[in-house]
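Q: What structure does this chain adopt?
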Amino acid sequence: MSSEFDIIRDFFTRPTRHTDLSVGDDAALIQPSPDTQLAISADMLVAGTHFFTDAAPYDIGWKSLAVNVSDMAAMGAQPKWATLSIALAENDSHWLSEFARGFFTCADKFYVDLIGGDTTRGPLNISVTILGESPQGQALRRSGAKAGDDIWVSGHIGSAAAGLAHLQGKIMLEKDTLKACLDALHRPMPRVALGLALRNIASSAIDISDGLAADLGHILHASAVGAEIYFAKIPKLPALQATVSLNNGHAGFEAYALSGGDDYELCFTAPQQQRQRIADISRELDLKLTHIGNICAGSALTVYDAENRAMVLQKSGYDHFG
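A:
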């Protein structure tokens, strides 16, 4: 039977890229680059709450780090270091090997060093803390949106929530659409390159984890502004929109696109004069960026339907205690 220290050595000790002292001591030693600020974030994934207990361990490994990398993207920060603490019900070498493979595949893609953490016995629970760097004073925040700014989102919205709904038996998706939605759910792609490109361009930014309406609402609260967005402009997979509308009616798809969560795309605001630069960034990154509305005075979020009527939102987004 492997010990806790065997698990750390065998599955979670890897060469590092930008770390002075990594896994194996009482603490890691890192040296931030000159003239930068550290961005620090943490997320916890709990079996039965954030993923099914029988989910593929590779996917759990990828997602546990990816959701943290996404926080760095939203701040316009370059992710660099992470710690991992994990509670395991049992010492399953196959599960650990696949989890570590997913985790380090994500770490390698975004040049993140794993520099420490902890392991213990208990119900499956994964906690990651991530650190990144941004040039002094250039981090993207939620609090900079101004009346008149455009509101943008990256990628497609609602796919992950629809994938979850399929797994829960609420809707049935066709093969190709299902694959796209399950990829969005299990292996979200943090928009780090976009976050870095938006420094000195975006006035505010956030990643969409709890639902577009809820997360945009955080920007509105932090910036003391309101917003008007147009449901028809929210980018969705066309085949997904048709399938969900057929199964649940128009209102069903509104729930996925506005409050479904787990997209890990970026929602950001920018002055109107930045539209051409944002179009250039979209082309340079080969990433769909869509203008969905505008910041306005006030404090409310209003969503308009295709007939330009204000929609009544049943739920704004995911809340662990809601």
